[in-house]
Automatic annotation (TrEMBL):
Protein's UniProt name: Riboflavin synthase
Lumazine-binding repeats: 1-96, 97-193
Organism listed in the record: Shouchella clausii (strain KSM-K16) (Alkalihalobacillus clausii)
SUPFAM superfamilies: Riboflavin synthase domain-like
UniProt keywords, alphabetically: Repeat, Riboflavin biosynthesis, Transferase
Pathway(s): Cofactor biosynthesis; riboflavin biosynthesis; riboflavin from 2-hydroxy-3-oxobutyl phosphate and 5-amino-6-(D-ribitylamino)uracil: step 2/2
Phylogenetic lineage: Bacteria, Bacillati, Bacillota, Bacilli, Bacillales
Name of the encoding gene: ribB
Length: 214
């Protein structure tokens, strides 16, 4: 589990692809402080498992499903990425609950400076936007952000200078693709409220017969 508070920007050292499988190596510092093989690190919002580690780099494998569903496949050596370690018990919870399981990929449509902030309009699939609400939270490339406005096919986020400086959002421009993960609470609520055939109550007489009481 992650919170969407990016710890540092790492730099892609190498990318090795074989079909839709991929091995990614990232140069970094902060997230390696207490990292070990088997730990989870979110790379642009994608939860990856550390498979190798050194003083200045970690490696992770990317399976075909993740390769297809995220922007990970677009990474090239020299590119910067958002990095966050899994949340530690007892640490501050500055963002929102993020699983690292990307829901889809959005496309930046507009970038508009407004006073000391920058507005980004992001286009996404309708099935994804339905989980996004105004003033709610969304993870964009792993960064926890507050939704400024929503339409049927897009949403707008307002980003302060600090976030632009400390994450890769500062480099984003119209046409760029970003990983999106909606607030998981909405998905659970929808599932719990969805009608199910199995939820229909069985008549007492039938239950008694099925259990050999009649």
């Amino acid at each position: 589990m992650f919170t969407g508070i990016i710890e540092e920007m790492g730099k892609v050292a190498s990318v090795s692809k074989k079909g839709k499988a991929m091995t990614l190596a990232v140069n970094c510092k902060t997230v390696l402080a207490d990292a070990a093989i088997g730990d989870s690190i979110a790379v642009n919002g994608v939860c990856l498992t550390v498979t190798a580690i050194s003083e200045s780099q970690f490696q992770a494998d990317v399976m075909p499903e993740t390769y297809e569903a995220t922007t990970i496949k677009q990474l090239v050596p020299g590119q910067f990425v958002n990095l966050e370690r899994a949340m530690a018990v007892g640490s501050r919870f500055g963002g929102h609950i993020i699983s690292g399981h990307v829901d889809g990929v959005g496309t930046i449509q507009k970038r508009q400076p407004v006073e000391n902030a920058v507005l980004f309009e992001v286009e996404a699939d309708r099935e994804l936007v339905r989980y996004i609400v105004q003033k709610g939270s969304i993870a964009v490339d792993g960064t926890s952000l507050t939704v400024f406005a929503v339409t049927d096919t897009s949403f707008t986020i307002s980003i302060i200078p600090h976030t632009l400086e400390m994450t890769i959002m500062g480099t984003k421009k119209p046409g760029d693709h970003v990983n999106l993960e909606c607030d998981i609470i909405g998905k659970y609520v929808e599932k719990l409220l969805a009608p199910k055939e199995s939820a229909v109550r069985t008549p007492l007489s039938q239950l008694l017969k099925e259990n050999s009481y009649m």
